[in-house]
Design brief:
two-stranded antiparallel sheet, seven-stranded mixed β-sheet, 29% helix, alpha+beta, 204 residues, 9 strands, Glutaredoxin
Length: 204
């Protein structure tokens, strides 16, 4: 009897506080705020970017699916195009210390230089708190947030789940599509997809 009462109470709590019942965010809802330190030592928040479109890009320089986008220059070109239009682009590193893709701020600065990337900032999330808060599962895993703070796209970078750069020219880039549609006043035609890539190397 006590067990039934306990689980009934949990169910009531889950209904009353749905955000507590799931770790990931949902398209159409306000994206949760966070505070992370970037590789320049500056604190960055999501709420501080209200009024701008924001892209969150989970990344791992050692992942072949990330290499697909950067070795081809595709991710850098998109970063450059969108940041020139006022979009804030945060690349987020959630690999835990000792795991693939974990680098110091100094190492990250060199990575950004070497691959000629154009993010607004690279944010360090070594405890994986923000990655888990958003339900990020892969590198890359992409999120687009509108100027009101609403999540308008979540999922894969493009429509062909492979690590082969040759596929890029045939693929639909969902991030580019979502931003261009939203910025022109149109609804996002593909607001959610299944992300693909390497699993994020969380601590646990």
């Amino acid at each position: 009897m006590k067990a039934k009462v306990f689980f009934l109470a949990l169910a009531v709590i889950a209904l009353a506080f749905p955000r507590l019942a799931r770790a990931d965010v949902q398209v159409g809802e306000i994206a949760p705020d966070f505070t992370l330190t970037d590789i320049e030592g500056k604190k960055q928040t999501l709420v501080g970017q209200q009024g701008n479109y924001v892209v969150l890009e989970w990344t791992n320089p050692d992942c072949p699916f990330v290499h697909k986008q950067y070795d081809s220059g595709t991710m850098q070109a998109l970063q450059k195009e969108m940041t020139s239009k006022g979009v804030v682009w945060f690349s987020i590193a959630s690999s835990a210390p000792g795991k693939q893709g974990h680098y110091s701020a100094k190492e990250w600065k060199q990575i950004v230089t070497d691959r000629k990337a154009f993010p607004t900032a690279v944010l360090l999330d070594p405890k994986g708190l923000v990655g888990k808060q958003y339900g990020a599962k892969t590198t890359p895993h992409m999120y687009v947030i509108d100027p009101k703070g609403v999540l308008i796209y979540e999922g894969a970078i493009d429509s062909i789940p492979s690590a082969d750069p040759a596929d890029i020219k045939e693929a639909t880039n969902y991030v580019s599509q979502a931003l261009n549609e939203a910025m022109s006043g149109q609804p996002v035609s593909t607001p959610s997809t299944k992300s693909y890539g390497c699993s994020i190397k969380y601590a646990s």
